[in-house]
Specification:
The complex is a heterodimer.
Chain A lengths: L1 H12 L3 H14 L2 H11 L10 H12 L3 H11 L2 H8 L11 H12 L3 H14 L2 H11 L9 H12 L3 H7 L11 H6 L14 E2 L1 E2 L12 E7 L2 E8 L2 E6 L15 H4 L4 E11 L2 E2 L2 H5 L9 H6 L2 E11 L2 E2 L5 H13 L7 E3 L8 H8 L7 E8 L7 E2 L4 E5 L3 E12 L8 E10 L2 E8 L5 H14 L2 E3 L2 E3 L5 E6 L1 E4 L7 E4 L2 E5 L11 H11 L1
Helix pairs in contact in A: 1-2, 2-10, 4-5, 5-6, 6-9
Chain B lengths: L11 E3 L2 E4 L4 E3 L7 E3 L14 E5 L3 H8 L4 E4 L4 E4 L2 E7 L7 E7 L2 E5 L21 E6 L11 H17 L3 E5 L5 H8 L7 E3 L1 H12 L8 E2 L13 E4 L1 H4 L10 E6 L6 H7 L3 E3 L7 H11 L3 E7 L1 H10 L3 E4 L16
The chains are: A alpha+beta, B alpha/beta.
Chain lengths: 529, 341
């Protein structure tokens, strides 16, 4: 694992993209097939399952270090990462066993089949023969928490360079539900038949937020439809089977069983890009309705009845078994429209309607009505654009509506973890209710590093009380909180829950007396909930 | 009736700083006082405004430079002075050149106030000497078992490898470090044959003071607006952490950045600083060093000042010491951008 640890260190040490790609490409040129395959798997989020509970790992680490467990628990929040804490807490390695990456993963899989005593012996031995970085990586794999600061896009670029293949082709090859246990380097990367796996999706084309409306040219060059507020999904109908993929490459087929009937109304060799929506009376429901279905393994009848799902189709990627992503959007859309015209209204499938206007002002007026349609804004797509893979600038833009905002005061602060260890970054906010303050949301993002440092210094000096890792601070600092949606929540004291709350601005100018009230929030709930 | 009056402690902890009532003086006080004994020249220990200062001969020039025209007496290491029956002596703390642990003895009772210290010989500072005592005042900047320093020779190799590979590509190696102690320790650690060494003004000032008092350092060139930077390609550039993140650093193109700090042991901090490299090097004792130093004093009472004070004193109490936390205004090696050392 020494080579893999060196790669990890190089990637971790540099902030430069070219250096990262070079390091990965070098690894892909020299590592064994088994190691390369695991490296791709790990870098694309295909982590081995957790072998052991973290509670036991902490106890064993303390035992091996000959130090009390409480000292471990005190060190953990300072380091901010469990595997790293273990790797630093243990005494230096004695001797060094250099097994390849795939060898250590095989050892991990062997251990997971053993009883606890044997697992312990295996793990303690591994810790005692691995130097710090390798020990850290091994423990990350043990906890099932391996992550790395390299995007799949960069990894694919390096792989393309090392194997002399086209990046888009490789991106497609890496999609789907493979693991290193179900495929080989040859089958996955070297073979030239990306459709060998019938369930394999195409890479999603992702849009950037609109930067400059004035640079788009005439409105007639653009195909415009609503930006639906659901879950992006790719429906694949091949060989009498259907598969539904999320943008994060999760297979969601079983979570939306109503879509199974589309096998009967769509021909084989069809792949549709669209949005999964909860949909009733020919209208999308709010995202809250759909959210209740996310994360459920089984879908009871009541849910199917209360929040029935459809696919709102907006693009066609494969037709009659042919990849048509290179054809202009206009062509793909017209085939999609013909295809959907022949499907019955009872099928859970709708066409995302085109929005039209003569000028950009007309379009802006339509955008302003987005919330009435439970939409997040508009999608602008160049009529002659191909369907590209990944996030690319120029042909597709999302033109979102402005978020909802509320001014609130910070009342609790908690330190972050990982890159944010030792920095206070996780805050709880309150609104006024008469003379009381009512907490209603947490937020973690939106401030610059400098602002986080500034607030950290203030929190340290102004802590009133500690509740474990949480610090109570005086209600002095006002922030503008932005969010995408609001829903009732009996679990929260305030009675509401926000969707994607973040700090839009630190309002140094605003006195605490002028913050919003619980009544303001309830008003928003009535309007947008 | 007979009252047993306990003997007063030789040192007490007051809002002005650590105070010796019998001798009527303070050690590293943070508010202006008539008489101050100073362990070393860093800004959180040697503050302005005291009536009279006492420090080691090696520490004096930097203190004079930083604090201006002060009433300062100096002592040699191991020399004994006496004040109101309290004998006072200074012993090497290994932290930076001239840094001292201050030993006080009165009627057989011995206290040592260690200021900041490290037990590893850094090749620059007078190496740490353990001093037997009854009560020991220790820092705990890195008082957790996750802090274990890289050995000095491995460290030298890491830094030299980084510099040499940058130099081979015509890239500047910009290393962020504190101006007093850390910078000169790094100068003594690197291999000057790799290329020229440039310095930021704050560091060069300290270099000149130390050279003038006979401490050998490799040749360095001060970065001035007139300097032809292009002619220095591949140079090592020593800068303060704040200069490294400022426009000052933009003239060195292309460059690779690194920080030298004990905090670089933590991946989260390394990533947050967004430097290309983080070298684990500190002028404070690591976990092993703190425990070894305290054991060597044979002290029964230990007072823990700045750092992970509550955790470290709880650990010491479990080891059988009479340990307690003391609130001070010392900073140690700060995690973020502070300038204290």
């Amino acid at each position: 694992m020494k080579d893999f640890a060196n790669l990890f260190t190089t990637l971790d040490q540099t902030t430069k993209t070219t250096a990262k790609v070079n390091a990965m490409a070098a690894y892909f040129r020299t590592a064994t097939d088994a190691d390369k395959l695991w490296c791709i798997a790990l870098f694309s989020g295909r982590r081995p399952k957790r072998v052991i509970t973290t509670t036991l790992l902490r106890e064993w680490a303390a035992e091996q270090a000959g130090l009390p467990l409480w000292l471990f628990e005190e060190s953990y929040p300072i380091v901010g990462d469990l595997a790293e804490t273990i790797s630093l807490f243990l005494p230096p390695a004695v001797g060094h066993v250099d097994r390849p990456l795939s060898g250590w993963i095989a050892e991990l899989q062997r251990l997971s089949a053993l009883d606890e005593a044997q697992r312990k012996a295996g793990i303690l031995h591994a810790w005692s023969v691995l130097p710090q970085t390798e020990r850290f990586l091994f423990t990350k794999l043990l906890t099932g928490g391996f992550r790395i600061g390299v995007s799949q896009k960069l990894m694919t670029r390096a792989l393309a360079r090392a194997t002399d293949q086209d990046e888009a082709v490789l991106t497609h090859k890496l999609m789907g539900k493979w693991t290193p246990d179900t495929t080989t380097w040859n089958a996955l990367i070297e073979s030239n038949d990306p459709t060998a796996d019938l369930s394999r999706p195409y890479p999603f084309y992702l849009a950037y937020g609109l930067e400059d409306l004035d640079k788009l040219g005439p409105v007639s060059d653009w195909f415009i439809d609503r930006k639906w507020d659901g879950i992006r999904g790719q429906l694949i109908i091949r060989d009498g089977q259907h598969h539904l993929w999320s943008r994060g490459e999760d297979l969601m087929t079983d979570r939306f069983p109503e879509l199974a009937q589309l096998i009967d109304v769509l021909p084989n060799g069809t792949v549709i890009d669209g949005e999964i929506l909860a949909f009733k009376n020919e209208k999308p429901m709010s995202f809250n309705a759909l959210q209740k279905r996310i994360g459920r393994k089984t879908v009871p009848k009541s849910v199917l009845k209360d929040a029935p799902a459809i696919l709102m189709a907006y693009d066609l990627l494969e037709y009659d078994g042919q990849d048509i992503r290179d054809k202009p959007l206009e062509t793909r859309r017209s085939v999609l429209e013909t295809l959907l015209n022949s499907t019955p209204k009872s099928a859970p499938l709708r066409l995302s309607a085109q929005v039209t206007g003569d000028t950009w002002d007309d379009i802006a007026n339509i955008r302003a009505t987005s919330r009435d349609h439970h939409a997040e804004g508009l999608m602008l797509k160049r009529r002659d654009s191909p369907y590209l893979s990944g996030r690319k600038k120029g042909d597709w833009w999302k033109w979102k509506i402005d978020p909802l905002t509320i001014d609130a005061v910070m009342i609790y602060a908690q330190a972050g973890s990982g890159r944010r260890a030792n920095l206070f970054t996780d805050f709880t906010f309150a609104v006024k209710n008469g003379t009381d303050l009512v907490p209603f949301t947490k937020a973690y993002s939106g401030l610059t590093d400098a602002e986080f440092r500034q607030i950290t210094a203030w929190v340290k000096k102004n802590t009133q009380q500690r509740f474990g890792p949480v610090r109570q601070v005086p209600a002095e600092h006002v922030f503008e909180i932005a969010f995408e949606g609001i829903q009732p929540s009996p679990r929260h004291k305030s009675g509401i829950a926000l969707r994607f709350p973040r700090m839009l601005r630190w309002r140094h100018d605003k006195p605490v007396d002028d913050i919003n009230t619980l009544d303001d929030l309830k008003q928003m709930l009535a309007t947008y909930g | 009736m007979h009252y047993l009056v306990p003997m007063a402690d030789l040192l007490s902890f007051t809002p002005n700083g650590i105070y010796c009532e019998i001798g009527d003086f303070y050690i590293d006080p943070w508010r202006p006082v008539p008489r101050a004994l100073i362990t070393h020249g860093h800004a959180d220990h040697a503050r302005p405004g005291h009536g009279h200062y006492l420090a080691t001969q090696t520490a004096a020039p930097v203190m004079r430079h930083r604090l201006g025209d002060i009433a300062l007496d100096t002592v040699s290491y191991g020399e004994t002075l006496s004040r109101n029956g309290v004998s006072i002596s200074f012993h090497p703390a290994g932290h930076v050149p001239g840094s001292a642990q201050i030993r006080l003895e009165h009627k057989g009772e011995i206290w040592v106030c260690s200021g900041d210290y490290k037990t590893v010989d850094d090749g620059l500072s007078e190496p740490f000497e353990p001093v037997k005592c009854h009560a020991f005042i220790t820092e705990s900047t890195f008082g957790l078992p996750v802090f274990k320093w890289t050995p000095q020779d491995t460290l030298a190799q890491q830094i030299n490898d980084w510099w040499a590979s940058n130099a081979a590509n015509g890239t500047f190696s910009m290393l962020g470090c504190y101006a007093l102690g850390k910078a000169q320790r790094l100068l003594r650690t690197v291999d000057p044959s790799i290329g020229p060494i440039l310095t930021h003004g704050a560091i060069e000032n300290t270099n000149q003071i130390l050279r003038a008092q006979g401490i050998a350092l490799p040749d360095t060139t001060l970065v001035t607006p007139e300097l032809d930077v292009a002619a220095q390609k591949g140079a090592l550039v020593l800068a303060t952490p704040s200069a490294l993140n400022s426009t000052w650093s933009r003239r060195f193109k292309p460059h690779s950045t690194a920080f030298a700090s004990g905090w670089m042991a933590l991946r989260g901090v390394r990533r947050r600083r967004a430097a290309d490299r983080g070298f684990i090097v500190s002028d404070h004792a690591d976990w092993t060093g703190l425990n070894a130093a305290i054991a060597q004093t044979s002290a029964e009472r230990v007072f823990v000042t700045h750092g992970y004070t509550s955790v470290f004193s709880k650990w010491l109490a479990e080891q059988g010491y009479d340990a307690q936390v003391v609130q001070t205004e010392f900073d140690g090696e700060t995690l973020e951008t502070g300038e204290a050392e």
